[in-house]
Write a structure and sequence with these properties.
The chain has 342 residues and is α/β, with parallel strands linked by helices. It contains 7 helices and 29 strands. A 7-stranded mixed sheet has the order 5-4-1-6-11-8-12, with helices on both faces. α2 links the parallel β4 and β5.
Length: 342
């Protein structure tokens, strides 16, 4: 079986962080979330994975290469212009048309049991199947209405509170049969939610959803959900196959007087000075330098960040290679440079 990671969007809701870091490389607990998803797919025996790239595409290819680091073989779709979720899948018809395939959005953190979803899909002889989860508040999600057999009856997009017909929300994890390509026109911007799924309903083809009880899922497409998802990973509420959630990498140099408290992940080649305090939940990316007497509390530092002596960073996200001077105080902030594209 093959899969596709849908990764072509600009992820504007994570600005300014994603002006430097393309969507597939947004780090969760020290590694690109798309890398976590590749390992997730590999854990279900899916080793051939396509990914569409657009913004800062060369950086994505440089980071992921062949995909071997994550146990998969990657096939790239270089999009000259964005064509939507279904439009991107249509362009990979040659890669995906051999049989049942999976698509996952690259900003999902999840442990949905794909084997159960695929088995349900095949039992129902479905053309398309959506993984669903129940949410208390659904006004920020796409809501799916099912019948007693799990067949999709309708959708509501971000319904007002009290008007929802269901509490089952669309996770963006889909199982398809190759016949789905008949419903996606070539060389057009086309979306699954807005364009393809209404066609399936109108055509009356087998189209199902499955409530994945007990699974974890969040969409890290907003700064709030990015922080929440990261903290859930650190706390072990969601576990990534083959990845380290917390602890200090052996290559890090940590002064004896430094204190690391709570749920903290410290990356590779990090330098932590004398009398530094790091309080979790926090993530310290690779190649970060934290000067003597500095404090980092409940914050996420991307790779290459430098924190000056006696500075304090609290409840903040610090973007790629950002430099904080000595004696600075940063609180409840998101700091990032504009990208330099070379």
């Amino acid at each position: 079986m093959r899969a596709m990671l849908l990764a072509g969007g600009m992820s504007t809701r994570l600005y300014p962080l994603t002006k430097q870091v393309p969507k597939p490389l947004v780090p969760v607990a020290g590694e690109p979330n798309s890398g976590h998803l590749m390992r997730y797919l590999k854990s279900y025996g899916i080793e051939e994975v396509a990914i569409n790239v657009f913004y800062l595409a060369e950086r994505i290819v440089e980071a992921f290469g062949t995909g071997s680091r994550y146990g998969v073989k990657l096939e790239y779709l270089h999009e000259a212009a964005l064509t939507g979720s279904a439009g991107a899948v249509k362009q990979m018809e040659h890669f995906l048309s051999d049989g049942t395939f999976v698509t996952v959005y690259c900003d999902a953190i999840t442990d949905v049991k794909l084997d159960e979803l695929i088995a349900f899909h095949r039992e129902r002889k479905s053309l398309a199947t959506i993984a669903l989860l129940e949410a208390e508040e659904v006004d920020q999600f796409g809501v799916v209405v099912l019948d007693d057999e799990g067949r999709v009856q309708g959708f509501q997009e971000k319904p007002k509170r009290g008007e929802e017909r269901s509490r089952l929300v669309n996770t963006g994890i889909y199982i398809f049969e190759p016949e789905i390509f008949q419903y996606i026109p070539p060389e057009r911007f086309y979306d699954f939610g807005n364009d393809v799924f209404p066609q399936l309903l109108a055509a009356g083809v087998p189209f199902h959803g499955l409530h994945m009880r007990g699974a974890y899922w969040t969409d890290i497409g907003t700064l709030g959900e990015f922080r929440r998802g990261t903290e859930d990973v650190l706390a072990g509420r969601i576990r990534f196959p083959g990845a380290r959630a917390t602890g200090v990498d052996p290559s890090a140099r940590v002064a004896a007087s430094a204190r690391i408290e709570g749920l903290v992940r410290v990356g590779e080649r990090v330098e932590i000075g004398e009398n530094v305090v790091i309080e979790g939940p926090s993530v310290i990316g690779d190649d970060v330098k934290i000067g003597d007497g500095a404090e980092v509390r409940r914050s996420i530092l991307f790779d290459g960040v430098s924190v000056g002596k006696e500075s304090k960073v609290t409840d903040s996200i610090i973007g790629l290679r950002y430099r904080i001077g000595d004696d600075e105080w940063i609180q409840d902030a998101v700091m990032s440079y504009e990208p330099i594209i070379v």
